[in-house]
Design brief:
This protein has 127 residues and is mostly beta strands. It has no helices and 11 strands.
């Protein structure tokens, strides 16, 4: 089992910044791609960003490119999401998830491709 715990959410004004963290415990974490998803009220969960197992390749949704940055520290079993220039449409619950296949060279945006999930952290951006 892998346990993922998100933190760092909160209330911020539009244009502000937040840094989310995903901490992992349990089975292997460092050999897997980790992604952030988000889900706004009444909407489906959507892909935000992902980082490969070694941390040298990333992928972003078009809606957050240039504003968000994902990083990881395998020694600490953490993945972070730096969110800048926040907009009201970024308001959502944010979840981290581990991709189901180790040492993958591809990125996947479907929730079905991820096998372990955290419980989420809420981000509210006021306009």
């Amino acid at each position: 089992q892998v346990q993922l715990v998100e933190s760092g959410g909160g209330l911020v004004q539009a244009g502000g910044s937040l840094r989310l963290s995903c901490s992992a415990s349990g089975r292997t974490f460092s050999g897997y791609t980790v992604a952030w998803f988000r889900q706004a009220p009444g909407k489906e969960r959507e892909f935000v960003a992902a980082i490969n197992w070694s941390g040298d390749s990333t992928s972003y949704a078009d809606s957050v490119k240039g504003r968000f940055a994902i990083s990881r520290d395998n020694a600490k079993s953490t993945v972070s999401l730096q969110m800048n220039s926040l907009k009201s449409e970024d308001t959502a619950d944010y979840y981290c998830a581990r991709y189901r296949v180790s040492f993958s060279r591809s990125f996947f945006t479907s929730t079905r491709q991820y096998d372990y999930w955290g419980r989420g952290t809420q981000v509210t951006v006021s306009s």
